[in-house]
Write a structure and sequence with these properties.
1482 residues; alpha+beta; nine-stranded mixed sheet
């Protein structure tokens, strides 16, 4: 659309001029608009000026308000080619900002009344000599621009209300300095003077606008100072009334506002003026309609110009044209031209009014008048001469006709009359095509095609813009459009036939263009104009009469551009000299002018065509028209080829070729490949040329025999001819993926069997077939090699043809001869035996993959002949279990300069064969189910040749490029014998028996694997064959952990060892072989899984080719712990604690006053005040949980302190036996529980004395003959052991609540009757329950003699200990006893220092014999505040009741006291055994 004047094609809107919002005005202009008081006014002297800073601040605020308002007014300006919004919903006005001094142009009536018409001549009227239209011009875009930018429909003047503060300083606290009382209040004479000037200005502007019927409105901007002025309303009313403005829609006040309020004010202001704007354009339409009605009749101005011109027969054509132009200029614009002007103006004003119906009506009338003016003889003005071709007025009128047609089509689209819009457009093309013939610019000239290209492109742009802005293309329905030239067209219930709708009077008048370009009128109702129409019996959808999307018209424009280029090239041939126009000739009576040729030479026709095709491609792609997009892409590629841009053309050809190839459009694909070959040749892309030529050899590509022969010869020349231009260099290897292109040969791979055994022979066949008959492949085509690639690279095969291409009779040694035959259709079938292959190496020794270099190779005749099926048979021997697949088959063509590989992957073989339609007598007919077929060859004799025959193997797909390789089923029998359950830590024997069930003796090997319980956790389970040797290595710490035993040779001997001296023994048929393995499981009592694999080698065929066969057997063994231990810790009395203590240390100072001691054994320093010693008696009960008897050699308690020393490497005192006896569970359990060792927490456990065990069993002889030290524990027996231990805590407050005392180390083995079955002794670690340490609290000990006698006094010594770091206050009371009296303090208070002890002595006198309770010493601790531990709050103890702030009394316990149960509650008492008095017992 940019090629036309924008005023003719854009959508017009009402024009609104706003003044007073432009940037800051000059001081002189500001003074002229706001004049200062004259010198005659002496009533009020001029006030002093205001400071410049304050003036500048107010001015900047006011200017910001104006700028924001102007931006809001211009925000909805919409200058576009399409605007279908109606009324107040869309853009209301086209706002034009002007200076405040702007005045409306005076009317012609005003100029005539004031005799000033000579001062303002109309420069755009054809009657004005200064006008560009003088004397016979029609219309100019400048007239539309004038009414769009200079003459508004609404005039809004935005003015400022004068403010005294802009000149006078506010020195009286906001009070007015100069005032006078008036009838309505305070009136400032200076303000009134300025208001009068403002009102007079607005009044003059209102009158000027009223003369032009322009709606006028005034907006007064207030400042912030006005908002506090009480007289502001009076001033505004005075200005409004003086200017004669209405308060409803002519006078507005704009106070200071924010951005949102300014935007709302601008929108409301425009909406309020919209009705006045519509009235203005309505009056303009009436005014021009009246002018039109005042025009004289069209026949009154006709002059016999044509007759005068035709009278001179001797004048030349050019002279006649010059004379006609001069006469027409002297005559001026005709009445028909003035009618066209008025119709156009009424259409424009209706468009500005947004009255689309009336606008299209006036534009259609103007268009009809304009078309009549183009005709040679006018029908509206009889005798009038039409516009002369190639003149200035003719060019202007032609542009106007195109723009009118575009306007009419656009407005019909606004009205949802798509068919009518399309009809007007096509009628425009038809009419001007007829005119072009009369102008000697027919379809044989590039000028016509240039004009047609522009029409299609502009109409496509219109449809594109409309669809982007919401226009919806109508869906064509049958019956909506009728075939025929002038048949009625119905759209819904409304007939839209517009052929006769020129608007010449009635609806029964038709308009047409004759063959010579003459317009004519005919009568009759053809479609009835806008009335009803008829539908004939042949009603249907005509695509030419259905409005389509923009891509359709872009494509028509591109086609017209192509024709334009062709016509221009023909015209260029006539120009021998580009600067001299050729003379008319018989073949070209009207050659184009030199000016038009020069203009056309500047056009890049091919670039223009590509641009239009690209636009069309994008539109069709947008509407998902896949076929059309492919066609357009091919057109773009062809245009690029014509332009010499071969690389771009090749890209487009490859892009569209993929789709046509995939969908099977071979006819189109053939043409694309031909063009691609030409592009690739031009670019020197010979690899692409070879690829395209190979595909063009396919029988699916339709072509003649001559063309196929030329394609074949060209391909052979490129590949094998040394003199070809493509063979100047060695090309890179070319790999073609054949399923993606059409191939001239089909390839398939077939295994004879679906399943085979490992190391067994399996045959396969490679089948190559050419289709399409004898003419599909003109000559035999030789393949250099056929490479069959399997999933196992060790089985790859390669069949080569070492013969040169031009030699056929060369004898190659070891080349297998072909066996040939023919079927009933004449197809040749050839079979080649390629089973005798040799393993050879490909490539150099530096190849990365050694397996891929070694292939099985054989020589064969690889000529591919027309209409032939060639079968190559080979054999493979897979060496392992797998699913063997054919990865691909590669047909190679290798020359000095080329290495071409045609790759056929296996997954597409079945699909290719199903799509193949070629059949022969040995293959299934159509309709039969697909079967797997194998080409068999009968054995040849001396008298007969071998025969070929296809044999159906089984149902299923025809070709199976996969082979399942499985191991041969083993016939051996495997058993496992053992006594379950097994014990942890022992060498558990498992006997594995294997029976040879084969038909021949075989040598067997066995692998045994002990699977871990959890693969993510390291396991210490192991297996051995000799447990005694393993025990010796374990004692020295050299035994590795083995969980897999490989290569155990089985034999029939009774020896259980796997000695190498046994050799490889063949087990006879039916014989049993035995092997005993020993499993040692640790830690976790759960079943273990053992997997046995027995393998052996056996011959399968007469050629003595052996294969390995394997059988697997798995079983589970349950492991349980052999022992379970329970222990009781019994605290011992204080006197036992003093055993071994020197006498001189007993009566020393208080512990807090004692000096520190050094523990030489452990190398630590002991603080007596913090140290605490306890002695416990351990009573341990060990139970044999399993169902089997065991022989126990040793039971030993390993304390935790000794274990820590052994683990730390300091077991010098205990020897290495302690370290070797530790189970991994002892150290790992501590790490898992994040526990510290006893040494780290300052606690030591020592074994003081070990008692004798109570054994309920029998002794047994051990390996060394020391039967006295070995005990047999039967299942369920309970063994009891007593040990006396000492626990020393260096600081009881830092010690944990409970500690691990240690564990029991038991050395044992399973009891067996036979000496040979006895396993070595093993060590089991039995954990013990933890010991709860006494809490850090005040306690009391008692020291008593061993016994007492009746009536003999003795001394009981108590000692109160305070192991805490706090001072305690104790209240002591003594409760009497029934069997004993005492002498001492009855009640006292003891203050006990931290880490101190206090002795208490009591003299007791026994009265009764027996076990007598001593008087109870009761000590109560007053807990006023919770104790702290090393600066930290102490946790509440059970003695404190769980509350750290309680003040309850806590009873001090006596350690070593006897617990007794009374009727009230259990208590702790101290008792002593009292002997009777001597001599009293008789």
């Amino acid at each position: 659309m940019d090629t036309y004047p924008p005023e003719f094609v854009i959508h017009l809107q009402p024009t609104l001029i706003v003044t007073g919002l432009t940037p800051a005005e000059d001081a002189s202009q500001h003074g002229a608009s706001n004049p200062a008081p004259t010198s005659n006014d002496t009533s009020s002297p001029l006030p002093p000026p205001r400071p410049a800073t304050q003036q500048h601040a107010n001015s900047s605020i006011l200017e910001a308000q104006k700028a924001a308002l102007l931006q809001a007014m211009l925000a909805r300006n919409n200058v576009s080619y399409w605007d279908n919004t109606k009324g107040l919903a869309g853009s209301l006005f086209f706002v034009v900002p002007e200076h405040r001094s702007y005045i409306l142009p005076p009317t012609r009536k005003f100029l005539q009344q004031t005799n000033q018409q000579h001062l303002f001549p109309s420069s755009l009227s054809p009657s004005s000599p200064s006008s560009p239209l003088y004397p016979d011009g029609l219309i100019t875009p400048l007239w539309i621009k004038r009414h769009r930018e200079q003459i508004p429909s609404v005039f809004i003047a935005i003015v400022d209300l004068w403010d005294r503060e802009s000149l006078v300083g506010n020195g009286n606290d906001g009070q007015r300095g100069y005032s006078d009382k008036g009838p309505l209040g305070v009136i400032d004479p200076l303000e009134r003077e300025h208001d009068i000037v403002l009102a007079q200005e607005l009044l003059e502007r209102r009158k000027a606008a009223q003369e032009r019927f322009v709606k006028f409105a005034a907006v007064i901007i207030l400042q912030r100072s006005h908002m506090e002025d009480p007289s502001i309303e009076d001033r505004l009313n005075f200005v409004r009334k003086s200017a004669g403005l209405d308060t409803k829609n002519s006078f507005y006040v704009f106070p200071p506002s924010n951005s949102q309020e300014i935007s709302e004010f601008a929108v409301n202001l425009q909406r309020s003026q919209y009705e006045g704007s519509m009235n203005y354009y309505k009056e303009q339409v009436k005014r021009h309609k009246k002018k039109k009605s005042n025009l004289p009749a069209t026949t009154a101005s006709v002059r016999p110009i044509q007759q005068q011109v035709m009278g001179g027969q001797q004048q030349t054509h050019q002279q006649q044209q010059i004379q006609q132009q001069q006469q027409q200029q002297q005559q001026g614009l005709s009445v028909q031209g003035w009618m066209l002007r008025y119709e156009f103006k009424m259409g424009m004003f209706s468009e500005c009014k947004q009255d689309i119906d009336n606008a299209v009506k006036h534009y259609e009338s103007a268009y009809g008048l304009l078309i009549d003016m183009f005709a040679v003889t006018s029908t509206i003005t009889p005798g009038a001469q039409g516009l002369q071709a190639r003149t200035k007025r003719w060019a202007e009128a032609k542009v106007l006709a195109d723009c009118l047609c575009l306007k009419i089509c656009k407005f019909h689209l606004y009205l949802d009359a798509a068919s009518t819009a399309l009809f007007y457009f096509r009628r425009h093309l038809i009419v001007f095509k007829a005119f072009s013939e009369s102008w000697k610019m027919g379809d044989d000239s590039f000028e016509y095609w240039a004009w047609l290209t522009k029409q299609y492109r502009v109409f496509g742009d219109l449809i594109d813009i409309g669809t982007k802005l919401g226009f919806k293309l109508p869906a064509p329905t049958p019956g909506s459009v009728v075939y025929g030239s002038f048949a009625g067209m119905a759209e819904g219930s409304k007939d839209l036939n517009k052929f006769s709708g020129i608007g010449l009077g009635n609806g029964t008048t038709g308009f047409g263009i004759g063959p010579g370009g003459d317009a004519f009128i005919y009568g009759g109702n053809v479609g009835g104009g806008r009335g009803g129409g008829t539908h004939g019996p042949g009603a249907g959808v005509n695509p030419l009469l259905v409005l389509q999307h923009a891509g359709f018209f872009y494509h028509l424009a591109a086609n017209s551009s192509v024709q334009r280029r062709l016509r221009f090239e023909i015209a260029e041939e006539a120009y021998l000299d580009s600067n001299v126009a050729p003379a008319p000739s018989a073949s070209r009576p009207h050659p184009p002018s030199l000016q038009s040729m020069n203009a056309e030479r500047a056009i890049d026709h091919l670039a223009l065509t590509i641009e239009l095709l690209t636009k069309s491609y994008e539109q069709f792609k947008r509407y998902k028209a896949g076929r059309m997009t492919l066609f357009l892409a091919s057109e773009i590629a062809g245009t690029y080829y014509t332009a010499g841009k071969f690389e771009m053309a090749l890209k487009f050809f490859e892009r569209i070729g993929k789709t046509y190839r995939k969908e099977g459009w071979t006819l189109i694909l053939t043409s694309i490949l031909k063009w691609s070959v030409q592009c690739a040749k031009e670019l020197g892309y010979w690899e692409n040329v070879v690829e395209y030529l190979i595909e063009m050899l396919s029988p699916d590509m339709p072509s003649t025999e001559e063309k196929r022969q030329s394609i074949f010869d060209e391909l052979v020349s490129i590949l094998h001819s040394e003199t070809h231009t493509s063979n100047t260099t060695v090309h890179k290897p070319l790999q073609l993926f054949m399923p993606q292109i059409n191939s001239f040969v089909t390839c398939a791979v077939q295994f004879q069997k679906r399943q085979t055994f490992v190391s067994s022979e399996s045959k396969f066949q490679v089948q190559l077939s050419t289709e399409g008959g004898q003419g599909a492949l003109p000559k035999p085509f030789r393949i250099s090699f056929i490479h069959v690639e399997f999933s196992d690279p060790t089985l790859n095969h390669r069949f080569t043809d070492p013969r040169p291409y031009i030699q056929d009779d060369v004898n190659i040694p070891n080349m297998t001869a072909e066996v040939k035959t023919k079927d009933r259709t004449g197809r040749s079938i050839a079979w080649i035996d390629c089973t005798q292959c040799s393993l050879q190496q490909l490539g150099g020794p530096d190849s990365e993959d050694e397996l891929s270099r070694n292939v099985w190779m054989s020589d064969a005749n690889l000529d591919i002949r027309p209409f032939e099926t060639k079968v190559l048979e080979g054999v493979i021997i897979p060496g392992e279990e797998q699913v063997l697949k054919v990865v691909k088959v590669t047909l190679g063509i290798v020359t000095e300069n080329w290495n071409v590989a045609l790759e056929f992957p296996s997954q597409d073989f079945a699909q290719e064969q199903e799509q193949s339609s070629t059949q022969h007598q040995l293959m299934p007919q159509q309709g039969e189910p697909l079967r797997r077929q194998w080409l068999e060859v009968s054995e040849s004799t001396v008298e007969s040749t071998p025969e070929l025959c296809f044999k159906n193997l089984d149902k299923g797909v025809r070709h199976t490029p996969a082979l399942r390789v499985i191991p041969r089923e083993s016939k051996v029998e495997i058993k496992s014998l053992f006594k379950s359950p097994a014990y942890l830590d022992e060498y558990f024997p498992v006997k594995i028996k294997v029976r040879n069930g084969e038909t021949c003796p075989v040598a067997m090997e066995m692998d045994v694997e002990l699977q871990p319980i959890d693969p993510s956790i390291e396991s210490l389970d192991s297996m051995v064959l000799d447990p005694h040797a393993a025990a010796e290595l374990s004692a020295g710490g050299e035994l590795p952990v083995l969980q897999i035993l490989n290569g155990i040779r089985l034999s029939t001997s009774s020896s259980s060892l796997n000695g190498a001296e046994n050799g490889k023994e063949a087990i006879p048929i039916g014989a049993w072989a035995e092997q005993v393995i020993y499993i040692k499981a640790l830690e976790i009592p759960t079943p273990r899984t053992i997997v046995c694999k027995v393998r052996y080698e056996i011959s399968l065929d007469k050629d003595q080719k052996s294969t390995w066969t394997e059988k697997q057997h798995s079983f589970r063994v349950l492991f349980i712990p052999p022992f379970d231990a329970e222990v009781d810790y019994i605290p011992q009395p204080a006197q036992i604690e003093e055993k071994g203590i020197p006498e001189e240390m007993k009566n020393e100072l208080t512990p807090i006053l004692r000096s520190n001691q050094v523990d030489e054994k452990r190398g630590t320093v002991l603080v007596p005040a913090l140290m605490q010693k306890e002695v416990y008696l351990m009573s341990t009960r060990i139970n044999n949980e399993g169902p089997w008897s065991v022989e126990v050699k040793e039971v030993k308690l390993i304390t935790a302190s000794a274990a820590d020393v052994a683990v730390g490497g300091n077991a010098a005192a205990n020897g290495t036996s302690v370290a070797r006896g530790l189970s991994r569970s002892h150290s790992i359990s501590r790490a898992r529980d994040k526990k510290k060792s006893l040494q780290e927490v300052g606690v030591h456990v020592d074994l003081i004395e070990s008692g004798v065990s109570i054994v309920n069993g029998q002794s047994a002889q051990d390996e060394g003959g020391e039967g006295a030290n070995v005990q047999q524990w039967r299942p369920g027996n309970l063994q009891t052991f007593n040990q006396l231990i000492e626990v020393v805590a260096t600081d009881l407050e830092l010690a944990p609540e409970q500690i691990d005392v240690g564990f029991l180390r038991i050395k044992w083995r399973r009891h067996e009757e036979k000496e040979a079955d006895r396993a070595p002794y093993v060590t089991t670690i039995v954990p013990l329950q933890p010991l709860a340490l006494p809490k850090s609290e005040v306690y009391m000990t008692v020291d008593l003699p061993k016994f007492a006698q009746v009536n003999k006094p003795f001394t009981a010594r108590y000692e109160v200990h305070n192991p805490t770091g706090k001072l305690h206050e104790l209240v002591m009371t003594v409760e009497p006893s029934d069997g004993m009296v005492y002498a001492g303090t009855m009640q006292t208070v003891i203050k006990l220092l931290p880490y101190a002890a206090h002795p208490i002595q009591m003299s007791c006198y026994p009265l009764n014999a027996g076990l007598v309770r001593l008087p109870r010493v009761k000590l109560v601790v007053n807990k006023r505040k919770s104790a702290s531990r090393r600066g930290r709050p102490a946790l509440p103890t059970p003695q404190q009741g769980g509350d750290s702030t309680t003040q309850d009394e806590v009873l001090v316990k006596v350690r070593g006291a006897t617990k007794t149960d009374t009727a009230r509650s259990p208590t702790e008492v101290v008792v002593i055994f009292v002997k009777p008095e001597t001599g009293l017992i008789r």
